[in-house]
């Protein structure tokens, strides 16, 4: 069994919540409280269900990261919907190894850095809101691309892509930041997708249909 490490300090709560979720949780809880005061039984029950769902959506569990040389970890929870060599990327001039991860509303949506390095650029592109599991979502949807350079000068790009329901991309990474594998850097709200572009000589460790977890699952290895 391989070694693992904590990429960030552990949370001091049993059910950690991502900060962007607090306003929505408090709003839903307040509305539910008003319904209860007005004795609207069914609306109160619906409000409780919605509040619990929002809490679950914005959950932010601690994750251990594999301490494996050259390993690229998944930046998102979800299902692999593409994993192969790709030649037509707007973010990678030459051929690359592309891995696409689809996140349903039931997945953890906090995103994590896939590899140690320095952020060389962050590019936001407004766009449409097709379902994130469609191929055209990579090309046409609203998205935010983070470009990373490793100590060996290898180029990695990972792209947060909004989906049919998602309308908010959150990214804390900024140009010049030194980042670490498994570190949190943002999230996409309510269903989305994340594409990862690696050098063409990277070795894949996943295939279509696999389930992965952000910061813990290994997508592949750099040479």
List keywords for this structure.
8-stranded antiparallel sheet, 2 domains, 223 residues, Glucose Permease (Domain IIA), 3 helices, alpha+beta
Describe the model.
The chain is α+β, with helices and mostly antiparallel strands. The protein has 2 domains: 19-57; 66-221, Glucose Permease (Domain IIA). It is 17% helix and 35% strand. It has helices spanning 22-37, 41-57, 137-140; strands spanning 4-6, 64-66, 71-73, 78-86, 96-103, 110-112, 117-125, 143-149, 155-162, 169-171, 178-179, 184-188, 192-199, 203-204, 211-212, 218-221. The strands form 4 sheets. It has an 8-stranded antiparallel beta sheet, with no helix packed on it. Strands 3-16-14 form a 3-stranded antiparallel beta sheet, with no helix packed on it. Helix 1 packs antiparallel against helix 2. It is globular.
Q: What is the residue-mean pLDDT, rounded to a whole number?
A: 90
Query: Helices and strands, in N-to-C order?
Result: EHHEEEEEEHEEEEEEEEE
CATH architecture of the largest domain: Distorted Sandwich
Structural class: alpha+beta
Summarize the structure.
The protein is an alpha+beta fold and 223 residues long. Helices cover 17% and strands 35% of the residues.
Write the SSE topology.
Elements: E1 4-6, H1 22-37, H2 41-57, E2 64-66, E3 71-73, E4 78-86, E5 96-103, E6 110-112, E7 117-125, H3 137-140, E8 143-149, E9 155-162, E10 169-171, E11 178-179, E12 184-188, E13 192-199, E14 203-204, E15 211-212, E16 218-221
Antiparallel strand pairs: 1-2, 3-16, 4-5, 4-15, 5-13, 6-12, 7-8, 7-11, 8-9, 9-13, 10-12, 14-16
């Amino acid at each position: 069994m391989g070694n693992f490490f904590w990429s960030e300090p552990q949370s001091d709560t049993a059910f950690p919540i991502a900060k962007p979720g607090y306003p929505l949780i408090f709003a839903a809880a307040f509305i539910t409280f008003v319904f209860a005061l007005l004795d609207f039984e069914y609306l109160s029950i619906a409000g409780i269900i919605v509040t619990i769902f929002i809490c679950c959506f914005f959950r932010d569990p601690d994750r251990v990261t594999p301490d494996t040389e050259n390993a690229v970890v998944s930046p998102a929870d979800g299902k692999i919907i593409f994993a192969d060599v790709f030649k037509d990327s707007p973010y990678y001039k030459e051929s690359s190894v592309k891995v696409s991860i689809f996140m349903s509303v039931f997945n953890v949506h906090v995103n994590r850095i896939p590899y140690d390095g320095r952020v060389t650029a962050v590019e936001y592109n407004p766009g449409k809101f097709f379902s994130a599991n469609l191929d055209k979502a990579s090309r046409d949807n609203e998205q935010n691309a983070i470009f990373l350079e490793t100590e060996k000068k290898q180029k990695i790009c990972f792209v947060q892509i909004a989906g049919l329901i998602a309308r908010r991309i959150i990214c804390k990474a900024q140009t010049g930041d030194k980042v670490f594998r498994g570190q949190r850097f943002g999230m996409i709200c309510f269903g989305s997708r994340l594409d990862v572009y690696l050098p063409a000589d990277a070795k894949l460790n996943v295939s279509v249909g696999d389930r992965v977890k952000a910061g813990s699952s290994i997508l592949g290895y750099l040479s």
